[in-house]
Design brief:
five-stranded mixed sheet; globular; binds 2-(butylsulfanyl)adenosine; alpha+beta; five-stranded antiparallel sheet
Length: 757
Amino acid sequence: MALFLFVLTGPNSGDSIKHPSGRGAAVNRRGHIVTQNTTDRDAGQQIAGIDWPDDVSAISESSARDLLAQLAALLQQANVDYHAADAPKLTDADYDRVKRLNAAIETAFPDLKRQDSPSELVGAPAAEGFGKVKHAVRMLSLSNAFDDADVQDFDESIRKFLGFSGDQPLSYTAEPKIDGLSLSLRYVDGVLTQAATRGDGETGENVTANARVIADIPQVLQDVTGVIEVRGEVYMSHADFAALNTRQSETGGKTFSNPRNAAAGSLRQLDASITRERPLKFFAYAWGELTAQLAETQYGAIARLAELGFATNPLTQVCAGPADLLAHYRQIEAQRATLGYDIDGVVYKVDDLALQRRLGFRSTTPRWAIAHKFPAELAWTWLKGIDIQVGRTGALSPVARLDPVTVGGVVVSNATLHNEDYIAGTGGDGEMIRGGRDLRVGDWVQVYRAGDVIPKIKDVDLSKRPETARPFVFPVTCPECGSAAIREEGDAVRRCTGGLICPAQAVEKLKHFVGRAAFDIEGLGAKQVEAFYHDEMLPVKQPADIFTLRARDAKAIAKLKNRDGWGETSARNLFDAIDEKRVIPLNRVIFSLGIRHIGETGAAILARHYGSWKQLAAAMDQAKVGSGAAWDDLIGIDGVGAVLAASLITTMQQPAERASIDALIAQLDVQDVTAPDTSGSPVAGKTVVFTGSLEKMTRAEAKARAESLGAKVSGSVSAKTDLLVAGPGAGSKAKKAADLGIEMLDEDGWLALIGDA
Ligand code: IVH
C-alpha cells in the first residue's frame, strides 16, 4: 500500500516508543509544557506504520528527526490521496492525529522542523501574495521557428557553432510544446521541498503548497540523494477545462477563456484548497539544478524522469535531422485535435547533453533548442475603427478596433496595424502586402494570432467593403500633445516630437519602467503608475518621483492611506515594495530607461561591458556619435551596432532626459555586474579579442566559452585589450596588438591557458 512505502524503518525508529509512563505529563524534562496533543494513542500503537511515541519531548533527537521525515512523507501522500487523487487512505481522525503529532514534535524540537514541514501545508492561504523564489538555475524561454526553412536554419546554425560538417550525425529530440505554464520542482534528498513558477526566469512565485495537491507531481522520489530540480508544464485537459467552466458558471464563479488560463488561474491560487479542486496535470521535460546528471542524452534524461515517477510526453522521439524533425512535426500536428490537451508547436532539442553544454545559452534562450510553432489561428471580423496610440519613444501606432471574435480560444477585439504603410498595403521592405489592398474602417478583415503575440490582420475581403469606406488618413500631429509627428528618412514609423512634454510618452515610459523586466515593483503596475501620473497630491511624472513617494506622502496632509481603495497596510506595502527595489542590478536599470533600440538583451550586454553605472555614464559623457575612443569602444562590443550606440549616446546627452535619469540614479543603489563565478579563471575580467581562423572550435563557441569564464570578448583591438588570440591568417588586428604590446596567444596557447587543452 502506497502509504507504507514511505515509512522509514531505520535503527532509530524503535527508540521513540520506549516511554510508556509519560502520557499526559504536564511538564516535560526540558521544562516545556507538554499538552495532550503529544499522544492521542497508547504507546506502541501505530497509525499507518508510524510507531507512536507517548511523550515527544522524551524521545531522542535522531528519533525525532526520523519521525518528522516519516510524518512529512505520510502527510504529503495523504494530501495527494485525498485532494488530488480523491482516494483517501487515512480516516479524517487519523489524519488529524498524525498532523498533531507532527506539530508536537516540531514544538519540542524546533530546530528539526523540516523545509517541507507538513504544518505549512494546504488550506493556509499565504498572507500577502506568494513568496518569491530565486531560481538556482534560470528558467529560460525558447526561440521560435515558424516554417521549414527556420528549422533548417536552426540545424545549420548549430552545426556552424559546433563546427560540424553537413554529414556529421547530429540528432535531436522532438516533443509537443504544451500550452500551459512552466513550473520548477525542487527535491532535496528525494523530498519535494519547493515548487516555483517561472516568473521573470530569475525569480518566480512560491507555489509549493499548490504543487503538493497535483496528482502528477510526485511528493517523494525513491532512491535519490542531493538536489534535483525537475521542470515541466502544468496544464489542464480539454475535458477537465470544460467541466471546470460548467461548474464555475453553475456556482457563479469566474469562467476561463482557455485551458491555459484555467491552469494558470488554478495554480496561482493563494488558497491551495482551491487548487486542490482544480484538475491540474504536469508533464516533465527539463531540469534545473542537479547534484548528479540524469543521463547522457536528452531522451535518456526524460526516460529517467519517467522512471522517477513523472509524467512525460509519450510523443517524445529522437530524430536524426531536420527532415526527420519535420516529419515528426507533421505527425504531431495531425494528432493535435485528438490529444485532449492544448499544444502550440513542437520543441526540438539537441539530444547529446555534452553538445547542449557546449552550445550554451543566449541571453534568454538556449542555443540547443527551438520551438516550431503551429500556424496561427484565423478568424474573420469587422474593422470598426482605427485608433492611434503614442508609445514611450513617441511612435504613433495604429490599432485596429475589431468586432470581438474568438481566435484560437481567445476573444480578440484589438489588433496591431504597425504603421501607416502597413495600413496602405506596403510591408517593411517596400513590398506589397495583402496584394497591395489597403485597410479601411468598415472592412471585413481576417485576424490571426501566433502564440502569445498581439493579434494581427492578415487579409481583407474587398467584396464586403462598404461604399462609404474611405482610405485612412494618418495624422501628422500627435493626438496626445499636438506636437508635430514626423517620419524620418528610412523610418517606417511616424513619431511625436513632443519628447518629455508629451503626456502619452511620459506615461508609457513610466509603464515600461515598472514593467516586469524593469523595476517590477509589487503593487505598482501600469494602471497604478498611470493613476499616479495624473494624481494632483502625489504626482509621479518621471521614474525618480516613484522613489520620493513615501517622503512626499509623509509630509502631505491628504495621505495615501486615507484615500478610496487604499488603507494603512496597502500604502505601507507599496512604499516598502518601492524601497525594496532601490537596490537593483545595472542591466535592469539600463533596460528600464526605455531608450529606443535598447531591449533586455542590449541592456544586459551594456551592463556586462561597463560593469557599473558610473563607468557607463562616464563613457557616455565623453562619447561622440560616429567617432572617437568612447564610440569605438561602444561599437566594438559584440551585439552593439551603430543604431543602438547612437540612440544611447543621444539620450544620455539630451539635457532634459539626462536630468531625469540622474534624478533616478540618485535614488538608487545600482548593483555592479557581478561576473559569473569564475574564481580560478585565468581570464576573468580580461578583454579578449579573437582574430584569424580557429581550428579546434568555431569563433562563436570560442567567444561563448571565454564569456562563461568571465572574459569580455571584443571585436576590435584597443589599449583596453588584454589578450589577442590569433589563428592563421591574422592581419591588421595582430599588427595593432603587437604595436600596443598586447599579449598574444595562438589557439593551442589559449586552450592551454583556460585548461581546455
Ligand atoms: S523546454 C531551456 N519543452 O515553452 C528550455 N519547454 O516558449 C526549457 N514549454 O518556458 C524549455 N512545452 O514553459 C520545453 N516540451 C517543452 C515545452 C516547453 C512547453 C514551454 C515552457 C517554456 C516555453 C518557451
